[in-house]
Amino acid sequence: MKSGPAPANFPVSTETKSILLVEDNEDDVFIMRRVMQKARINLPLHVAGHGAEALDYLTGKGKYANRTEYPLPSVIFLDLKMPYLDGFEVLKRMRGIPGVDQIPVIVLTSSPEQRDRETAELLGARGFRVKPPTGDMIGEVLQSVCGLSDFCA
Amino acid sequence: MDPQPELTKQATQPPPASHLHLFDRSSPQKELAQCNRAVEDAHRLAAIVESSDDAIIAKDLNGIIMNWNRAAERIFGYAAEEVIGKPVTILMPPERENEEPGILRRIRSGERVDHYETVRRRKDGTLLDISLTVSPIRNAEGQIVGASKIARDITERKRADRELREMRDELARANEDLERRVEERTASLTEAIAQMEEFSYSVSHDLRAPVRAMHAYAQALIEDYGERLDEEGRDFLQRILRGSSRMDRLIQDVLVYSRLARADLHFSQINLDRLVMEIVQNYPDIQPPKVQVDVAQPLLGVVGHEPSLVQAVSNLLGNAAKFVAPGTTPHIRVSTERRGRLVRLWVEDNGIGIKREHQSRLFGMFQRVHADRRYEGTGIGLAIVRKAAERMGGRVGVESDGISGSRFWLELPAVD
Fold first, then answer.
1. How do residues B112-157 score in pLDDT, each as one tens digit?
2. Is B207 in the same domain as B91?
3. Crossing angle of the two packed helices B155-202 and B231-262, in degrees rounded to 10
4. Does B209 contact A132 at a Cβ distance shorter than 8 Å?
5. Which H or E run contains A85?
6. pLDDT in tens, B351-367
7. CATH code, B225
8. Would you call A110 and B204 a contact, using CB atoms and an 8 Å cutoff?
9. B94-117 b/e with 16+ CB inside 10 Å = b?
10. A-chain residues near B205 (CB < 8 A)
11. How many CB atoms lie under 10 A from the CB of residue B219?
12. Which residue among B88, B118, B238, B282 sits deepest, i.e. has the most Cβ atoms within 10 Å of its Cβ?
């Protein structure tokens, strides 16, 4: 795979607020959708199934060049343990991409491993949360990390 | 310098005439008395030489053997008549013959050779280690005419030295071997620990995911389809929910335990008043009106690893609040007591107590002592408390009559 920084195709949209979930486990995607629905968090949720896809999304590669359909997210929920490219690698590569390096990333993982927490922080993650996500957790993140308050339907 | 009788097997004979010139010849009687005394002296000296354990040999300045005592016969295996008149080099192994000129040179210039350790050869060809002292022999005029050699057989000592050296070498080799084995063990232990860490990491990530999914779908089923199920169907789903919750708690407790068992703990002084207060603030289940917690302030300070202690005290308080008879408001009393260099933290409750026969296995892994469904737990909580205490140099225990409450205690090193 081609590595190294590549510029984002479009600047972060100030109009379209959305969430990008980087998660390889379909069940965890289901839980996220369900929790957002229950908590009436009315923001589009885009999903990248693994780290490489997340980078494609963020750099606007292929179909992701369509920023109307795939806008740059306001916040990213990032799983750590994924095939091909894990969450830490995604964090590392995001840092060199102008426009993308500003998007807040919340690590959403299965265990409160201290070393993971430290590594995530070192690589610029803005938060570290343990699965399963809850409505309160997502609401709190949107408010404190993204300054969003009008996300509820 | 005093005249010396020659040291010789023939020294039992009267001394040679050359020594007689010092005698007073003024009167034949005196001369005779002096002569007799000299003969006695010579005899005595000869006896000393003969009875010596060390070989005593006299040689002339050309290295020719002139006298040879009994110890020399014993040590070197030659009778006196075999060696007298022969060069002293017959006692030297070929590679040592070059020592002789040096020794003779020093003797000629009046020097002694003291305790010189070397090797000599017996008549039968075997070698022996000796310590050699060679001194010049002077005649009546003070001229150096030969040398006396005192040779001590140090074969035994040398052998002991050699054995000692060999044992030292062997010990050093055994030490190296031991060090190598310790290194190997350490390496394999380090690897085992790394594998263990990988394992628990995978447990936390991979085992929790399907449990999470099970719980989420059962929840969704109840929420979205619950009304279409009958009572029994909904009960089954509730059981799946309970089972998956319990499974997740078990996994998390096992993880807490394994993390506690392997973590590097950094110790600090801990204010127990603050720690207990923060725990109570963080857990609604141990706050009024559900639970009454009395803290006998001020609690004594302890030294420990704060996150581990928070874990342990939380578990004790949680248990105290949980194991009460139905309808009873849990009443927990927290206090401290100085016991030598330790501080004992007491957590007393008004709960259902623990029968004496269960108390010994209470702190083991996966041990539950209450069959009642109301008191369901993972059976790991108190094992975590014990592990935490042990890692911090302390211990845990319980006192209970099995009826009226339990008094759990946790001992840790005191501050100071």
1. 888 889 999 999 999 999 999 999 999 888 899 999 999 999 988 8
2. no
3. 150
4. no
5. none
6. 988 888 888 888 887 77
7. 1.10.287
8. yes
9. eeeeebbeebbeebeeeeebeeee
10. 81, 109-111
11. 17
12. B88
Given phi > 0 = left and psi -120 to 50 = alpha, else beta, which region is A44? beta
Sign of CA pseudo-dihedral B216, B218, B220, B223: negative
For B75, list phi and psi in degrees, rounded to 5. -75, -45
Q: Which residue of A has its CA nearest to B252?
A: A111
> DSSP state, A96?
T
Predicted ipTM? 0.78
CB B413 within 8 A of CB B341: yes
> What is B388-407 written as a DSSP string?
HHHHTT-EEEEEE-SSS-EE
CATH number reported for the structural domain that contains residue B289 in this entry = 3.30.565.10
Segment (H or E) for B144: strand B144-153
- Residue that the structure tokens 């080799």 belong to: B173
Pairing of strands B144-153, B406-413: unpaired
User: Which CATH architecture does the domain made up of A22-144 adopt?
Assistant: 3-Layer(aba) Sandwich (3.40)
Contacts of B213 in chain A (CB under 8 A): 25, 27-28, 30-31
pLDDT tens, residue by residue, B213-232 = 999 999 999 999 999 999 99
Three-state DSSP at B55 gives: strand
Domain containing B201 equals: 184-262
Judge whether A74 is closer than 8 Å to chain B, CB to CB.
no
Residue B30 is predicted with a pLDDT of 81
Q: What is the pLDDT of residues A59-111, one digit of tens each?
A: 999 999 999 999 999 999 999 988 888 999 999 999 889 989 999 999 999 88
Region B184-211: what's the mean pLDDT?
Answer: 82
Q: d(Cα B50, Cα B74) in Å, to the nearest integer? A: 11
Q: How many domains does chain B have?
A: 3
